[in-house]
TrEMBL record:
One of its GO terms (molecular function) is aminopeptidase activity. Keywords: Aminopeptidase, Hydrolase, Protease. InterPro entries: ArgJ-like_dom_sf, Peptidase_S58_DmpA. Pfam families: Peptidase_S58. Belongs to the peptidase S58 family. This is D-aminopeptidase. The keyword ATP-binding does not apply.
Length: 360
């Protein structure tokens, strides 16, 4: 099942992207999926690895920002306190969080038998969105083996759209899911990469904005006339998880600042962080690691806060682009009780032409 990659997806902003155009442009970062696609079960797991070493023994600095806290993620409290990742980052549906967390714990113990004995316990990190419109979330279908499969599949080249945790997600009343992008910047005389991966499951169509163009209002009117999309006045109740990676040498306090700029990219697409929306961003750096054992933490020279603006710019642009990428890459899905989400391209075959006309 390969999501079609539209060759002319609009590039947002002026900053260049990396070679892959995904979060994997940050060296060492890999992504894997396990997709469940059978009748009413339309869900999955996505895993992001910061590096190939043991994440418990070689922790990376990280921080998160909760933009709107209507969510059931696990692991954020300890990240806020200690500022490091101890497991890969996992994404799944709301009721799959416990199973994936258990899988992370068991994997960490298998690699480090002293966890919970002579060593402290491990902090699993699982983010979620509610895919209950397309997926029978009450089943529940996610099992620990699905996390293991996604972890084993992690690679620099990965699919986006209706895959992994994104299988059952909706975005702006179309099919949503996994999206990713990257941006290249210079700061303090050095070149750095910022990459983003999103699990997009939010928004109502009239809100949709692409590269500053409020195309959602026009599309909503046209599609309702064609009976391709039912009229709706429901409030925004979805969620989005935004993962930001960089190779710039930042500490957890600076990464907290970087993660907050993901909200700028989210807002540009039309989100107002609705009451029922769980909007969370996490940023991590691959520039250095924290050894589990030892008396001191060796850090490289960190960027001065006054030099962070290029990274803030890259974060906002890459998150915005990743959300558009999720829409561009998704395929239509029919799931629970016959519910269907059309992909953006199935619903609006002439979208590229419309965007060009609006930008002319």
């Amino acid at each position: 099942m390969n999501a079609p990659q539209i060759p002319h997806m609009q590039h947002i902003g002026v900053l260049p992207s990396g070679t892959l155009g995904t979060i994997a442009d940050v060296s060492g970062v890999t992504v894997g999926h396990c997709t469940l696609d059978q009748d009413a079960i339309q869900t999955g797991v996505t895993v992001i690895r910061a590096h190939r070493d043991d994440p418990y023994r070689h922790k990376v600095p990280a921080a998160a920002s909760v933009i709107n806290g209507f969510g059931k993620s696990i692991g954020l409290v300890q990240i806020d306190e200690l500022g490091v990742l101890e497991t890969p980052i996992a994404l799944t549906n709301t009721f799959g969080v416990a199973a994936v967390a258990q899988a992370q714990i068991r994997a960490a113990i298998a690699s480090n038998p002293q966890i919970g004995r002579g060593w402290p316990t491990v902090n699993p990190l699982v983010f979620e969105c509610n895919d209950g419109y397309l997926n029978d979330i009450q089943a529940p279908a996610i099992e620990p083996t699905h996390y293991a499969q996604a972890l084993d599949a992690a690679a620099a080249s990965f699919e986006r759209g209706s895959v992994g945790a994104g299988r059952g997600m909706s975005c702006f009343d179309f099919k949503g899911g996994i999206g990713s992008s990257s941006r290249l910047v210079s700061a303090a005389g050095h070149d750095f990469t910022v990459g983003a991966l999103v699990l997009a499951n939010f928004g109502r169509l009239p809100m949709l904005t692409i590269d500053g163009v409020p195309v959602g209002r026009e599309l909503a009117l046209a599609l309702r006339k064609q009976a391709a999309l039912a009229a709706t006045t429901k409030p925004e109740q979805g969620s989005i998880i935004m993962i930001v990676a960089t190779d710039a040498p930042l500490d957890s306090r600076q990464l907290k600042r970087l993660s907050m700029r993901a909200a700028a990219g989210l807002a540009r697409t039309g989100s107002v962080y609705g009451h029922g929306s769980g909007d969370i961003a996490l940023a991590f750096s691959t520039a250095w690691t924290v050894a589990h054992e030892g008396d001191y933490i060796a850090t490289p020279p960190l960027l001065n806060d006054a030099r962070l603006d290029p990274l803030f710019h890259a974060c906002a642009d890459s998150v915005e682009q990743a959300i558009v990428d999720a829409l561009w890459s998704a395929t239509s899905v029919t799931g629970r009780d016959g519910h269907t989400r059309l992909s953006l391209h199935d619903a609006v075959p002439d979208l590229e032409q419309r965007l060009k006309q609006r930008n002319a």
